[in-house]
Amino acid sequence: LCSNNNPYASFGATLARDEEQNLWSTPHDVTHTEADDDRVLYNMIVVRNQLDKDSEEWQKLNYDIYTLRQTRKEVRSRWKHILEDLGFQKEADSLLSVTKLSIISDSQNMSKARDILLKLSEETNIFPTSWELSERYLFVVDRLIALDAADEFFKMASAVYPKRPGGDRADEGPRP
């Protein structure tokens, strides 16, 4: 067969391209650059791809991209862990899935969702200390409010990821 007639000829290249553009966690989601934090990561990738791979700048930027992605995965994993502990084992992934098609369930919940998200940021270590609040989690908190589980989520986050003096998590040693 000629590769032009083979619909699977570029399959590996497509997967690699999708993974490179996978700014969050959902392959083939074209809405990544809609949120500010996605735009920052996307811009880092664009700049890195314009640099020579042997350069020190490319290596530094590549490390920063990797670190940001790992941090995002860790935060998502923390949220998923708490959701599963609250009994949302089957729903955890869908509760955490946010795209530009996601909507706030009730506009009256918006200020409550912001307050809870801010409280989570200030009073727990569910987010790393350097983390800028992501709009993505505002949608997740809104969903928790609609399910009447936001307060329980906060209590669980406080227990599992308590804020400690100096910003250390209970399961981490002191940071240098």
From TrEMBL:
InterPro entries: Melanoregulin. It comes from the Eukaryota. One of its GO terms (cellular component) is melanosome. Pfam families: MREG. GO terms for biological process: melanocyte differentiation; melanosome transport. This is MREG protein. It comes from Pycnonotus jocosus.
